Amino acid sequence: DSSAPTEHGKPAKIYLPNNQIYSERRANATFVILCRNDQLWDTMRSVREIEDKFNHIYHYPYVFLNEVPFTDEFKYRLNNIISSKAEFGLIPHDHWFQPDWIDEEKASASRAQMQSENIIYGGSLSYRNMCRFNSGFFFRHPLMQKYKWYWRIEPDVHFHCDILFDPFLYMEDHNKIYAFTISMYEYERTIQTLWGHVKDFMKQNPQYVHPNNAMGFISDDGSGDRYNLCHFWSNFEIANMEFWRGEAYMSFFEYLDSQGGFYYERWGDAPVHSIAAALFASKDQIHFFDEIGYEHAPYTHCPKEGDHFTRGRCSCNPGNNFDFDGISCLNKFQAFMSRS
Ligand code: GDP
Ligand code: MN
Prior knowledge:
Helix content is 37%, strand content 13%.
């Protein structure tokens, strides 16, 4: 009987619902949550959901990051519901705040202008700090260094289904580097010069562009002349930090950062990550997790393939699945993946 206790007293196999078989194998992975102290209760709900749907079995650790120290209450409340280790880190000043070499007059004029045009977060400086941090710094934080894989979680997101497998191990075993659940179009106004800089970088560094890249997903002309604004929604990400820490992405980020567009425009970490994954990785290393039911207002990905919905005991409304929305890029991604 394979469920008989082993020498060290633990059963060799624990049978979980839906015939999952428990394994002690783990990836070198962590959850990472960037948030503010005043988001305590929204963060509690996200963590409680991922614990209930996944981590009460897998016990992956958490890293919380903030540009100000987390309060004792924040740490106490979260530790109380987390089934594994949680670490709470302070972001180094230069990883967060606007660098001195940014022309503040130009930056504040851009914020005022975008605010007057009602561009979402157009007037916000802290949002720009956040986007730059998520683009180029979170994976360099001292608490993140020891990990290879991360799963990004935000306050106030929802996981609608049991997650009956280990997404980190799936990625490791299938040679993936980046996974998403929702993909959509970016607001052009926030990244007006980004693609021009991407093209300049590619011209100067053709060695970084993967021969089997996913340019055909992010550029409708296929040649990369124009960016179609498709990106992976980065509030959910499971990815390999060695990719971000590697030479291609590091020089890409440095190049983009030196253009100042995180402050003179409002470049998001989602298009920056997505463009890099599409260009510097093999297209087969980008993965869509249909199984993971996920909601970040106002959009939900609800599992739809095979038995994912019933097996995961999902509670999302399949009729309200962003996958089929007119502004979803999933169709484009899947069409690209299947034709090439
Ligand atoms: P949205 O998803 O684009 O609407 O942006 P959010 O407001 O959700 O911010 C994205 C992530 O960054 C969330 O995890 C936030 O908690 C976090 N975040 C945003 N601004 C700040 C900030 O000023 N300080 C900290 N510590 N976290 C922030
Ligand atoms: Mn958010």
